[in-house]
Specification:
With about 180 residues, the protein is mostly helical. The chain has one domain. The chain is built from nine helices and no strands. Helix 4 runs antiparallel to helix 5, helix 4 runs parallel beside helix 6 and helix 6 packs antiparallel against helix 7.
């Protein structure tokens, strides 16, 4: 009995132990859920630290068996370009991420979340990168397919992005908000 209480105390202490600078230890599962990754992706563009956290969690994702998580891996690679100091590294990270994402979409053309990821990247990168040709196509795909999405969390996540996006008309945003 005493050993089991000590074990529970030890586990609780690990979860809530301060790490310095006022941070709290956060333990993520080895294979995080797509819901966790979606939230990390939203925060990743806010700081280099968040981008690195997302990338490190996803760097070993199996692209064949989980194309959606692999899409977030590709997105994290393009985000790393934002914070790279050298131009050559900016180009390398962005190109690797974009090539991986395009490959995933060509293999999974009906994956609405991959389309959303690409749309979010293409809307946010500078025009000089010339990676914006699919914005209209992806927005139209999302408008046509969102009604068929069964997963409530995924549907809400996509709707939340679409409502803030400039890629959708006000009429499309109204339609999407009613789904």
């Amino acid at each position: 009995m005493i050993k089991s209480r000590f074990f529970l105390f030890l586990v609780a202490a690990l979860f809530f132990a301060p790490l310095g600078h006022g941070n709290t230890l956060v333990i993520l599962p080895k294979k995080p859920s797509v819901e966790v990754i979606r939230n990390l992706y939203i925060k990743a563009s806010e700081s280099q630290e968040n981008t690195e956290k997302l990338y490190n969690i996803l760097k070993d994702v199996d692209c064949e068996n989980n194309p959606t998580l692999a899409g977030y891996k590709a997105a994290s690679m393009t985000l790393k370009a934002k914070y790279a100091e050298k131009i050559i590294n900016k180009k390398k990270y962005f190109k690797e991420g974009a090539v991986l994402l395009e490959s995933l979409i060509s293999e999974n053309p009906n994956n609405i979340e991959l389309r959303l990821i690409r749309l979010s990247i293409q809307e946010s990168v500078p025009k000089l990168l010339k990676y914006h040709k699919n914005i209209k196509e992806d927005a139209q795909f999302i408008v046509k397919q969102l009604a068929h999405v069964k997963d409530k969390d995924k549907k809400e996540y996509i709707k939340a992005y679409a409502i803030k996006s400039y890629a959708f008309t006000s009429e499309e945003k109204t339609v999407l908000s009613k789904l």
